[in-house]
Amino acid sequence: xxxCRRSHVFAWVLLGLIAAVIPKVSIAGSQEPGPxxxxxxxxxxxxxxxxxPAGTFVMGRNGGKAAEAPAQLMRIKRPIAVARTxxxxxxYKACHDDGACRSMPWDRDWGRGDRPVIYVTFEMASxxxxxLSLKTGxxxxxxxxxxxxxxxxxxxxxxxxxxxxxxxxxxxGDWDHKTFPVGTFDANGFGLHDMQGNVxxxxxxxxxxxxxxxxxxxxxxxxxxxxxxxxxxxSTPTYRFGGRLTHTGYDxxxxxxxx
Length: 259
Fold this sequence. Notes:
The protein is an alpha+beta fold. It contains four helices and eleven strands; from the N terminus they run αβββββααβαβββββ. The protein has helices spanning 6-19, 89-97, 122-136, 145-153; strands at 39-40, 49-52, 55-59, 72-76, 80-83, 140-141, 200-207, 217-224, 240-244, 252-253, 257-258. The strands form three sheets. Strands 1-2-5-11-6 form a five-stranded antiparallel sheet. A four-stranded mixed sheet has the order 9-8-7-10. A two-stranded antiparallel sheet has the order 3-4. The radius of gyration is 17 Å and the shape is globular. The two termini are 23 Å apart.
């Protein structure tokens, strides 16, 4: 795995061994998938997670950017839980206070609290997910690109457009050139907020130039969702961008999924 440090690989191996033996106890009280739309939270500062059903959807689109094509039918084979919002500064701080997230990113003086954490690399996002797993006994991780896009559609084949549905350039009347607190806008059909706009989100998938079969570039990972910085056409389920593992920015964040 040339794209990952040896210590990071070891951490994931250790995670698997520990998760197999530690008690699986959570506020939710169960490790089994809940009914679609049900919400659980494994600890006070853990993200609220929404159970999504297994299902099929059309991933990508034809007629847009080359990277979005070809459109193809995809299947999510089993239920997954997806964070209701992007990871916030408060949630990330809990990991930092425990010593598992090594640095606390700058907020550009926009405020911390319930704003999405920004300036996070792929490794920082992965470290947070690994910390959640060790803390709760449940496997948390970054979503695959297919999982992220499935969640973003919200069970609907029609994408919401127009003003005041997302924080992006041209999407909101009083656009303020910075992040908004998570959950500012209505949730999608799955009960998830900010799947479009606010911050672009890391996924676990190595970058490919399109959805056509090709060799993946694991020096990059796929990011999804657009951000406050980009125009409306970027804030769609299908738009995708390859980011270097070490890249950070004032519009880059993430959310987690759980198995």
